[in-house]
Specification:
The protein is 32% helix and 21% strand. The strands form 2 sheets. A 5-stranded antiparallel sheet has the order 1-2-5-3-4. Strands 6-8-9-7-10 form a 5-stranded antiparallel sheet. Helix 5 packs antiparallel against helix 6. The protein has 306 residues and is an alpha+beta fold. It has helices at 20-29, 74-80, 115-121, 138-147, 177-191, 231-250, 265-271, 275-285, 294-303, and strands spanning 40-44, 49-53, 94-100, 106-110, 131-137, 152-155, 164-172, 194-203, 218-227, 254-255. The protein has 2 domains: 3-147, 2-Layer Sandwich (Uridine Diphospho-n-acetylenolpyruvylglucosamine Reductase, domain 3), CATH 3.30.465; 152-271, Alpha-Beta Plaits (2-Layer Sandwich).
Length: 306
């Protein structure tokens, strides 16, 4: 259920890490593989909490309602603050998290302990340091699983959607979703691109994170389309993404943060007026620039464009 705001950068190559000590050492040494971080660390039914390592897949938490949250890992969901099965963003299900900061130190952050870091790291796309563990609220997970609704999804046959695939995540008010989809289809036809996939899910507001994308209720849309595998096709696909963002803004929506690099500078700042401050906080926590990924580099470059 978290697929609509997917992690926009791959898991880095390098030695596999399994413990907090491994992660601290790897953080200072270079690229690492965090897929070994997949264990349950603490299950306390009395307090209603479950602490898991960040690489734990949601399907491994099926007894606690995790299967309703779909593919991916708990850490990935926290990194993008993705909407769960009932539409509430991931921050609603978190008690705390531990991460390795740029200086190689393991720090715990929550609403009460290091709240500033908590607000930045949840939905911060991993730029404040890799997560070691995430502590989940069992009651909130169960509530989300019980109230969840499947996304509306349209997949076209492969024969009708051949060629290179491009995608974008957008947010529009629910009442504007149908007119927007019609406009998006018209833009695809105008640019001669074939719609390959359209997915719509509910996203509810939150006000706890710094780079908050869910400032009101939205319909979160994932649009994928295909074109010729040529230079012209790729250039046209980029132009089309900009056009789709324009349509979302005109409908009272926004580009999802995972797709920020697809927007223009003016579009990005219109959607996220706090973006420059977010990047300034990143530099304050990590002045040497030790923690980086493709999303951060492209988003930082976005604000440097004329």
């Amino acid at each position: 259920m978290f697929a609509s705001l997917s992690l926009p950068f791959p898991i880095p190559a390098g030695p596999r890490v399994y413990s907090a000590g491994d992660l601290c050492k790897a953080m200072l040494a270079g690229p690492f593989d965090d897929t070994g971080l997949d264990r349950v660390l603490c299950h306390d039914p009395r307090r209603g909490v479950l602490e898991v390592q960040s690489g734990t897949p949601w399907h491994a938490l099926a007894p606690h309602g995790g299967s309703a949250f779909g593919p991916g890992t708990v850490g990935e969901s926290a990194a993008v603050n993705a909407p769960g099965p009932d539409g509430r963003p991931m921050v609603a299900h978190l008690r705390s998290l531990t991460l390795v900061t740029a200086d190689g130190e393991l720090r715990r952050a929550s609403r009460d302990q290091a709240p500033e870091l908590f607000r930045l790291a949840v939905g911060g796309f991993g730029v404040f340091g890799p997560f070691y563990s995430v502590t989940l609220d069992l009651g909130s997970l169960a509530q989300a699983a019980a109230a969840g609704a499947a996304p509306v999804r349209l997949d076209l046959p492969e024969s009708l959607a051949a060629g290179a695939c491009f995608g974008i995540d957008l947010l529009v008010p629910p009442e504007s979703s149908e007119p927007f989809i019609a406009q998006a289809r018209a833009a695809l036809d105008e640019h001669r691109y074939a719609l390959a996939r359209l997915e719509v899910r509910r996203a509810l507001p939150e006000d706890e994170t710094f780079l908050r994308w869910a400032r009101r209720e939205y319909a979160a849309l994932r649009i994928e389309y295909r074109s010729r595998s040529t230079l012209g096709g790729c250039v046209g696909a980029t132009q089309l993404r900009t056009r789709l963002v324009e349509l979302a803004l005109a409908a009272g929506g926004a580009v999802a943060p995972s797709s920020l690099p697809a927007a223009s500078r003016a579009q990005a700042t219109a959607c996220y007026p706090m973006l420059a401050a977010f990047l300034a906080e990143k530099r304050r926590f990590d002045p040497a620039g030790r923690v980086t990924n493709a999303w951060y580099l492209r988003t930082r470059g976005l604000l440097r464009r004329d």
